[in-house]
Amino acid sequence: MAFRVGLISNVPPVVVPLVETLREMGHDPVAWLIGRKKQDLVRPDPPWGDVTDRNAPQGVNVLLARRKEDVAGLFRGLDLDAVLCWGFSWKLPQEALDVPRLGSVNNHPALLPRHRGPYPLAWAFREGDPVFGSTWHRMDAEFDTGPILAQSSVPIADTDTWIEDFGPRILQETFSMLPRVFERLEAGDPGDPQGEEGASWAGPFEAGYAAVDWSQSAREIHNQVRAWRHMFGAAEVEGPIAELDGGRVKVLRTSLVDPGGDAREVQCADGSIWITESEPVS
What is the pTM of this model? Predict the structure, then answer.
């Protein structure tokens, strides 16, 4: 059965391939809802910039919501069978989630209930997880707590330092679960309730995690650098900051093996780590 699908996301690199995948499955993605940016919010612009006609998928209505209370009204009249949400920070009211006939579903890049919250990739690195998770779950009025419809994971490699490295693997695995998601939606399956055992919150990092301690192991520092890279500038402090040659640098990328070139080798508690990208801190 073909479904009319609404999308909720502020991340075009997710939406564009998701639209293509839905169409290949025979479904009709009819609308993409984006939250308007607050004018007083000071945060780095995302690398993909603003959504325009130039980068929005053809044939999909683009809806700009100024506040969460407007979402239900924007979706009414679209005759939606389902809504898929992925990469959206607002806690939406139940009124909006109930508009589609079969319900609203979110994708969270974690093995829920582990790493609920806005920065699951960062916390997966920080805690040395062996895998990135991906969970499709029914949405409720809280963040990442609804019943699970499908769940899977992909291994984390030592060379995974930025989302371009591993994002395509996560997308492929996540899209592969969509047939099961729609099957359960069509059957009226409520999903599998989340337990609280193993639940954790992936919020912004604290100031105490910002400083690099060279007396730690190379892997701990490597994970710290990768974790901060996926905080996306949201923490109240800047990190990770390292003391090096009498100065301070922000470490952007490291390697556990010698990559050659002009990478900087630094001694840690258990051996060497190589700084491949950094910038000075005034």
Answer: 0.93
